Every structure is written in C-alpha cells, then in structure tokens.
Amino acid sequence: xxxxxxxxxxxxxxxxxxxxxxxxxxxxxxxxxxxxxxxxxxxxxxxxxxxxxxxxxxxxxxxxxxxxxxxxxxxxxxxxxxxxxxxxxxxxxxxxxxxxxxxxxxxxxxxxxxxxxxxxxxxxxxxxxxxxxxxxxxxxxxxxxxxxxxxxxxxxxxxxxxxxxxxxxxxxxxxxxxxxxxxxxxxxxxxxxxxxxxxxxxxxxxxxxxxxxxxxxxxxxxxxxxxxxxxxxxxxxxxxxxxxxxxxxxxxxxxxxxxxxxxxxxxxxxxxxxxxxxxxxxxxxxxxxxxxxxxxxxxxxxxxxxxxxxxxxxxxxxxxxxxxx
Length: 325
Prior knowledge:
Blueprint: H1 2-20, H2 22-27, E1 33-37, H3 44-60, E2 64-68, H4 75-82, E3 90-95, H5 96-106, H6 113-116, E4 117-132, H7 141-150, E5 156-159, H8 165-177, E6 182-185, H9 189-198, E7 203-207, H10 208-216, E8 221-225, E9 251-259, H11 264-277, H12 281-289, E10 293-294, H13 299-319
Parallel strand pairs: 1-2, 1-3, 5-6, 5-7
Antiparallel strand pairs: 3-9, 4-7, 4-8, 4-9, 4-10
C-alpha cells in the first residue's frame, strides 16, 4: 500500500506539471500575437513581417498583427521587446542593424541578442550591389578599386545612415584593401539614391531591392553583388567572391525572434509553420518581387549564422569608431 501511495503522489505531481507548462504551450496561440517591427511601415522588414503575419494567421487560426515601433536605429523596439513576457505573444521581426549593431553603436547595454533574443528562423536574405554613376570611368570592380587607390578620398559614397550594413561593408572594404573614399551619410535610402542618380555622389552599395530599378533603367551601373551566388535579378553581374574578394559578403537578413525563455514548444511550432510558409512558391515569388530571397533556417542554424555575423561586423563597428548621431 505504501508503494502505491508514493507512486500516486509522483503521478499526481507529474500531471500537475504537465497541466501548468506544456499545456499552455500546446494551446498557443490562444489570442492575438504581436509582431514587433523596429522600422516604419513600408520598408523591407515591415514587408517581410506582413507577409508572414498573414500566413501564420491563416495556418494557426489566430490574429497576428504587425506593430511598428521605429526609432533610435532599432533601440526603441529592441528595448520594448526585451521586456516582453516570454509567452509567444510578442515576437520580433528584425534585421542586421537593430539586432546586431544598434546597442554597440549607441554604446550602451540596451539589450544583447545572445542574452535577450531567441532566434526562431531567418525569413529573407537580400544581397547588396555596388553601383556607380555612369560618369564614373570604372567599368568593372578592378577598375573601381584602382580608381579609389589612385586618388585617396576623392570618390564619394552615398550611405543610407551610420551603422547600416551598407556603411559597414564600405568600412570593411576600405580597411581590408587600404583604399579610402568619402562617405556621405543620409537619412535613409531615398535621399541617398536621389543624389547618386543626379551625380552629387559617385557610388553606393544598396540592397538589390533598392538599387534594381535604377540599374534596369540605365541610370546607374552595377559592378558586383554580395552573396555566395549570383543574384537572380542581376544574373550578368559577378559576385565579389567570384572576383576574389571573399570577405565582402554582407547581406541584409530579416528574421523572427522570441523573447529569451519562451517555451521550446512554441519556438518549434513557429519554426515548423514558417518552414512550410517560406517554401511556398507563392511566398517565394512575393519576396522575389521585393528583391529578397526567402530563406528558412532552423533555430540552431540561425543562431550560428548570427554568431558569425556578430563576430565579423562588431569589430568593424569598433575599428571605425561608429557612433550614433
């Protein structure tokens, strides 16, 4: 009898634990889920968030809303997300700047993705293209770097802002190759692109989603793209890697994160659904039209990717002494 009494207590305890934790995760989502975006509506990251929110809503039977919380290079959204309950009802759709660079550039411990963010999956990857004004005599990448070496500081580059992937790639190129040019920072891609097209500045490194229209119209000339393979949107333009510049593989990612401590069952459920979504031909085409490639990683793969990106770019931020305006 004593044995059965002890066994009964153990079974009861296990039943209580099963009710209190896993059941909550298994029932998720039972109400509206917020996708926090650290940018205004209409941009690349916001677009990715809205695409997956719509599909997750259909697949999981609950409302998924996008909440735009822009400002301070992503810090405002990142700090708010850090304080969110780890229950799966507040998620973060971020990119390189807000996730990896913003706290370092701001020089304060607002949050740390390794400590505060739980990577679920990548969503898209967008390569960058080095494009020049037609008046620049360089017809290929070698001629461009030769031109930069021949007259240090004379070339001018349009940057959409301090600490962007575009800016960091420029700093890495100058440091690695021993070249020098003048970087002109703008508040976003639109004014930078306007000045490049008009010839006020001579070149830029844009996400393909930004630079493609001006290339197709003949207003700007592409010299090379980042990424491990040629971009389908610009199949005749070589990659930096195939031209021998293997370090210059900067891409803009968008990815989904949960607060640290979110139950593994919820993370798994989100990843499994997104893996299906990001393989859907209709979704692939939708991102393709935006100049982005749908890419699904497991939580472990995405974490490893972020660790490599962190190790590559944070030293560039520190060496260039990049600070928030």
